[in-house]
């Protein structure tokens, strides 16, 4: 064969070999442990969900999912870390409502939730529950909360785990829809907020069922309503806010998994399949129930659409209530 033809042929063969190697690498994924970044401290619902699913997915994918907590800046430190990670499927993120709300809260967000990530799957919801210290407010229902706040505008308080958290946004939406004036008291985390609620320093809190349920069961707190559209299986006797006097109210704290943008579709598909299988595992379902979580699942496309919708709603609430970082 003529030498001038050999060089292009050799190049084509080399390219084909490289393509074959790349395909083989993807086909063999995962070959090493996967880091699952939790952008909040250990112990919360998000951390529990990642660890529970990671254990089940590790068995399914014959690897280990290593949970790494990168807390700070309302989840932005961990999220930015994953956005900049190599898109090879070995670094993934669990995120919550903040992924949709933070663009409206932070002027200089160093990542774009809708373009810097490859959606994998919705994971679960963990309803918030409106609770009060019965010794302090003597409120028996949502109607009581609204009536008392209308009688004494600006007197009653609601605590949160920080500006922009689902606990805060649930309260802001409640105040807005009820047409009442209540003072928001932000804390650095749910723990300190709960301590002051139990101690009688604040009146109400739209806390996660995960941390509120033990205090409800002990009688230290009274559960008035859950924030989701449907009742929670963790507190089946507690009505929704909409049922209890504020029709149309809904705030759903959700959790979802993302990979860096550019992660090969076949790897995203593998991760999605493993997540959905884990979410259907009876053992996983029972474990999630203990923290008040209800599994969802879904396709990457469904998560992409859901995030876009939630971002619109989050921006609307932030602007309507003039929510600012403090």
Task: Give an account of the 3D structure.
The protein is of the alpha/beta class and 326 residues long. It folds into two domains: 32-125 and 253-320, Bordetella uptake gene, domain 1 (D-Maltodextrin-Binding Protein, domain 2); 128-226, 3-Layer(aba) Sandwich (D-Maltodextrin-Binding Protein, domain 2). It is built from twelve helices and eleven strands. Strand 6, helix 7 (166-178) and strand 7 form a beta-alpha-beta unit. The termini are far apart.
Indicate the proportion of strand residues: 15-25%
Provide the gyration radius in Å. Answer: 23 Å
What is the CATH domain class of the largest domain? Alpha Beta
The stretches of 5 or more residues where confidence is low (pLDDT under 50) are 1-25
Q: Count of DSSP helices? A: 12
CATH third-tier fold name of the largest domain: D-Maltodextrin-Binding Protein, domain 2
Q: What class, by secondary structure content? A: alpha/beta
Mean pLDDT: 91
Helix-residue proportion: 40-55%
Assign an overall shape: globular
Q: Specify the CATH homologous superfamily of the largest domain.
A: Bordetella uptake gene, domain 1
Instruction: Kindly give the count of domains.
Output: 2
**What is the H/E string?**
HEHEHEHEEHHEHEHEHEEHHEH
Identify the CATH architecture of the largest domain. Answer: 3-Layer(aba) Sandwich
**End-to-end span in angstroms?**
74 Å
What is the count of β-strands? 11
Biggest sheet details: 6 strands, mixed
* Arrangement of strands in the largest sheet: 2-1-3-10-4-11
